[in-house]
Amino acid sequence: MEGAESIVPATLAKRTSLREQVADSLRAAVIAGEMKPGQVYSAPALATRFGVSATPVREAMLDLTKQGLIAVVPNKGFQVTMLSDAELDEITDIRLLLEPPAAARAAENVQAEDVAALAGVATKILDAAAAGDLATYTEGDRQFHGRLLEMSGNNRLVDMVRELHDRCRLAEPMGLLERGLLRTAAGEHLTMCELLAAGDGAALAALMRVHIEHVRRHRDE
């Protein structure tokens, strides 16, 4: 398959199941824009690149289909989906309803070691932004928001927001990079850590709203 070699690593990191490893790599490629909307990707071609059978690749791609990141092309393979402006607005509105209050709740329950771990992820995000490394930025950003929301104590909320967050990221990182906003968004993660450590839930929620709105701003400005 044309383009397959440029979107997946030659080897897979050793973690969890093979299906999850493939899904993580494909998700990063989709969100970083390395897999292009409209182009059809076949499981056998990707499997050859990974050096695995087509089964875990096909299973991983079906997982991403359930998350709305890709769609099945009958008898051909899969292709990356694109959000319409209306869909992006709807998802952003839902995130704005869920994430800021959850972040404020996290500030009430946070432990010093949790903030330290989160700050490490924030630094990774900032370094990736400085290097223009969208794949690393995206994975770090996903980890950061997931871990922050886990501190709210609502695991179901974490799962819901992760799915919404992934879908929004399809529209965000390239635009942020092109408009020079990637470092700004990256730096906000460190500020969130400072507010979290200070227990300032109100300020953290306010910054989270600004942070989420970047998705719309990079499209509308």
Element layout with pairings:
Layout: H1 18-31, H2 43-50, H3 54-66, E1 70-73, E2 77-80, H4 85-109, H5 112-131, H6 134-150, H7 155-169, H8 173-178, H9 182-198, H10 201-220
Helix pairs in contact: 1-3, 2-3, 4-7, 4-9, 4-10, 5-6, 5-9, 6-7, 9-10
Keywords: DNA-binding, Transcription, Transcription regulation
Pfam family, one: FCD
Domain HTH gntR-type: 16-83
Strand tally is 2
Structural class computed from helices and strand pairing: mainly alpha
Q: What top-tier CATH class of the largest domain fits best?
A: Mainly Alpha
Radius of gyration: 18 Å
The helix/strand series, from N terminus to C terminus, equals: HHHEEHHHHHHH
Protein name: FCD domain-containing protein
Keywords: DNA-binding, Transcription, Transcription regulation
InterPro entries: GntR_C, TF_FadR/GntR_C, Tscrpt_reg_HTH_GntR, WH-like_DNA-bd_sf, WH_DNA-bd_sf
Organism: Phytoactinopolyspora mesophila
Index terms:
221 residues, mainly alpha, Arc Repressor Mutant, subunit A, Four Helix Bundle (Hemerythrin (Met), subunit A), two-stranded antiparallel ribbon, 10 helices, FCD domain-containing protein, transcription regulation, GntR_C
Characterization of this structure:
It holds the Pfam family FCD. This is FCD domain-containing protein. Residues 16-83 form the HTH gntR-type domain. The model has no long low-confidence stretch (mean pLDDT 84). The longest helix has 25 residues, at 85-109. The protein is mostly helical. It has two domains: 4-80, Winged helix-like DNA-binding domain superfamily/Winged helix DNA-binding domain (Arc Repressor Mutant, subunit A), CATH 1.10.10; 85-220, Up-down Bundle (Four Helix Bundle (Hemerythrin (Met), subunit A)), CATH 1.20.120. It is 70% helix and 4% strand. Helix 4 runs antiparallel to helix 7 (155-169) and helix 6 packs antiparallel against helix 7. It has a two-stranded antiparallel ribbon. It has helices spanning 18-31, 43-50, 54-66, 85-109, 112-131, 134-150, 155-169, 173-178, 182-198, 201-220, and strands at 70-73, 77-80.
